[in-house]
Specification:
By secondary structure, the chain is an alpha/beta fold. It is built from 14 helices and 7 strands. The chain has 3 domains: 128 residues, Alpha-Beta Complex (Conserved hypothetical protein from pyrococcus furiosus pfu- 392566-001, ParB domain), CATH 3.90.1530.30; 53 residues, no CATH class; 47 residues, no CATH class.
Length: 284
């Protein structure tokens, strides 16, 4: 199967890869078989790092009652026969081990490394199992290890290019903020708002402490950004003209600082002689 055709299948979802796409012709018919569970190895390309124990327990109970309803997707491991690497279905594989199943249904496909990572990413995205940071790390790995462009990844996983770009930007956050995002203390919306902050670590701690929503976080970042900007001097053409007139009359550089009420006048001297000149003028 060509890479373009396989990418179209990825965009349509896992059903196409399993040969289940309704009304679609599949170039490589999916042949299901059962293999001993001990012959299956976890994948190094699994983007998901954490598996909730309560979810695995619930899935294990479902498998105990009804069995595995969808086969695992695996690929052969070169040089280790017979053995297979998981591509999609790690939750089912883990839950099946809890139940004590000896064999599991699988579909075997010869897939390249980048294909295995893309499929694992698609599976988790479709089930909304990935955190925003796990998703960003998977995109980054596809780019760094396999030379994928943002456009190619967007097409492969069925997301917009802007979504991929904005998700990748989360990796530029400082490590403490990424940790809060990974632990679920911050949402992806919070994290995107903090990207514009001058001190995202401090603001992230404040957001968590105060329990701010995304909109409130955006306003907080904006306020802090405005506070850090130097205030513009209220200078108009009349002020500049008056400075020039005073400078000409006194022979010194003069600065006027208008304020809301009143202001200040500064006389600048470059030598003691000029300072003596100022004193003479003041004494009349």
């Amino acid at each position: 199967m060509s890479e373009r055709a396989r990418r179209r299948q990825l965009g349509r979802g896992l059903a196409a890869l399993f040969g289940e796409a309704e009304g679609e012709a599949v170039a490589e018919p999916a042949m299901q078989r059962r293999v001993p569970i001990e012959l299956i190895r976890p994948s190094a390309f699994q983007p998901r790092r954490r598996f909730a124990e309560d979810e695995l327990d619930a899935l294990a109970q479902s498998i105990r009652e009804k069995g595995i309803l969808q086969a695992l997707l695996v690929r052969p491991i070169d040089g280790e026969e017979p053995a297979f690497e998981l591509v999609a279905g790690e939750r089912r594989w883990r839950a099946a081990q809890r139940v004590g199943m000896h064999e599991v249904p699988v579909i075997v496909r010869p897939l390249a490394d980048f294909e295995a990572l893309e499929i694992a990413l698609v599976e988790n995205l479709q089930r909304e199992d990935l955190s925003a940071l796990e998703e960003a790390e998977a995109y980054s790995r596809l780019m760094e290890e396999f030379g994928r462009t943002q456009g190619a990844m967007a097409e492969a996983v069925g997301k917009s290019r802007s979504h991929v770009a904005n998700t990748l930007r989360l990796l530029s956050l400082p490590a403490p903020v990424r940790h809060r995002l990974d632990q679920g203390e911050l949402s992806a919306g919070h994290a995107r708002a903090l990207l514009a902050a001058a001190d995202p670590i401090t603001l992230a701690a404040e957001v968590v402490r105060r329990g701010l929503n995304v909109r409130a976080t955006e306003k907080l970042v904006q306020r802090r950004s405005e506070m850090r900007q130097p205030k513009r001097r209220l200078r108009d053409a009349d002020t500049v003209a008056l400075e020039r007139e005073l400078s000409d009359r006194l022979g010194l550089r003069v600065t006027l600082e208008p304020k809301r009420r009143g202001g200040s006048l500064s006389l600048h001297y470059a030598s003691l002689d000029q300072l003596d000149q100022i004193l003479r003028l003041l004494r009349g």
